[in-house]
């Protein structure tokens, strides 16, 4: 791998392919695979990731917002795209780009039908989201008859899929709760078929659901974090390869005398003479202030260098007192060995948060 001479996020498309193949190996041959590429494919780069997954045969993509789906269409993605959280204000552009909305309340369903009917659409694909316990978005099971009534004698839309989302699929202490969600969704699936008179695609599992609840794959699964290399448990992490390596370079080295302070607000006071390295990456690049004051670290010449004091907007200072290093040397923020998940744990957060936070000003580079 080329050495970094500025801050760069390297994206390993071979690792992406390995993760995809591993997840696929957990499925029945006819179970469909929806790749979740919201939030710039979890901070990686939605266009490059989606293009690669399209060549690998992913059946569906999902994004959170309409604008994310438009970007994929503009990049030439032809695969169906589910918009998980569309807003009615964007319905017209959603139709223009053949994006498929997740509809979660009678109000938003009626609004969408009013528009598609006015535009003389026929069988426009929609997806019904059911709430089975997350209490975030979704119809209750009691809404099924009302939904069927709205859809009766209406050919502007067709229900392509019905789905729900697991609350704690990675947490085996919540197995009973999850099994109850699975039961609820199974019952919803029967009621939906009865009410509509046809069978849409049913889907429930995210990455940890795929791994922990093989009995609940239904017709399709939705994976995000697994594609990007995290299995949400020490055991499963071994079967995945993180696709992103975030690295940067030492801009300057300072010798700090005992009693002197480092960084804004004098958050660090040197207890002894020390040496720090300044790196061109800060909270505007996605390394939040919670990683400051020793909670986060980088790796320089194979040794851990803790972040000293407060994270600045464009820089961090790290402790290199016991590390032989020079200006221009590479610093690893995370890679396949020093994972984003391990870094996140130090600041009491999760891999999802740190990788989606890597901002758009960080240069992306692709490895095949
Ligand atoms: C983000 C999201 C997913 C992906 O979850 P992972 O844990 O990353 O696999 C799946 N389904 C829905 C509804 C989501 O919002």
UniProtKB/TrEMBL annotation:
InterPro entries xrefs: Ala_racemase, Ala_racemase/Decarboxylase_C, Ala_racemase_C, Ala_racemase_N, PLP-binding_barrel
Reaction catalysis annotation: L-alanine = D-alanine
Sequence positions that bind substrate: 136, 313
Domain Alanine racemase C-terminal: 243-367
The keyword Coiled coil is annotated on this UniProt entry: no
One GO CC term, this protein: cytosol
GO MF, one example: alanine racemase activity
EC number: 5.1.1.1
Residue ranges crossing the lipid bilayer per the database entry: none
Pathway: Amino-acid biosynthesis; D-alanine biosynthesis; D-alanine from L-alanine: step 1/1
Cofactor(s) needed: pyridoxal 5'-phosphate
Any single biological process term in GO: D-alanine biosynthetic process
Modified residues (N6-(pyridoxal phosphate)lysine): 38
Active-site residues, Swiss-Prot/TrEMBL: 38, 264
Family designation: Belongs to the alanine racemase family.
This protein's name: Alanine racemase
Organism, as annotated: Neotamlana nanhaiensis
């Amino acid at each position: 791998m080329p050495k970094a001479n500025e801050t760069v996020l390297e994206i390993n498309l071979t690792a992406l392919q390995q993760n995809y193949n591993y997840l696929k190996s957990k499925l029945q041959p006819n179970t469909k695979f929806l790749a979740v590429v919201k939030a710039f494919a979890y901070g990686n780069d939605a266009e490059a990731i989606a293009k690669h997954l399209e060549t690998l045969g992913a059946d569906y993509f999902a994004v959170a917002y309409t604008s994310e789906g438009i970007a994929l269409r503009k990049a030439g993605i032809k695969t169906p795209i589910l918009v998980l959280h569309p807003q009615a204000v964007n319905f017209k552009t959603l139709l223009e780009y053949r994006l498929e909305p997740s509809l979660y309340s009678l109000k938003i369903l009626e609004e969408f039908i009013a528009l598609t009917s006015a535009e003389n659409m026929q069988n426009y694909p929609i997806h019904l989201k059911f709430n089975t316990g997350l209490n975030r978005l979704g119809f209750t099971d009691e809404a099924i008859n009302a939904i069927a009534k709205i859809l009766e004698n209406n050919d502007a839309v067709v229900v392509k899929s019905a789905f729900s989302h697991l609350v704690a699929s990675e947490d085996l202490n919540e197995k009973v709760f999850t099994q109850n969600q699975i039961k609820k969704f199974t019952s919803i699936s029967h009621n939906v078929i009865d009410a509509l008179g046809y069978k849409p695609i049913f889907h429930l599992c995210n990455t940890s659901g795929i791994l922990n609840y093989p009995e609940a794959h239904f017709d399709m699964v939705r994976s995000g974090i697994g594609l990007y290399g995290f299995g949400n448990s020490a055991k499963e992490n071994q079967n995945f390869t993180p696709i992103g390596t975030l690295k940067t370079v030492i801009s300057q080295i300072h010798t700090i005398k005992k009693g002197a302070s480092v960084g804004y607000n004098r958050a660090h006071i040197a207890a002894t003479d020390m040496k720090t390295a300044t790196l061109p990456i800060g909270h505007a690049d996605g390394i939040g202030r919670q990683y400051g004051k020793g909670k986060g670290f980088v790796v320089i010449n194979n040794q851990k260098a803790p972040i000293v004091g407060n994270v600045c907007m464009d820089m961090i200072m790290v402790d290199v007192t016991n590390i032989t290093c020079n200006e221009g040397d590479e610093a690893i923020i995370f890679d396949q060995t020093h994972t984003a998940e391990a870094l996140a744990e130090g600041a009491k957060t999760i891999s999802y948060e740190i990788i989606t936070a890597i901002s758009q000003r960080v240069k992306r580079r692709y490895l095949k």
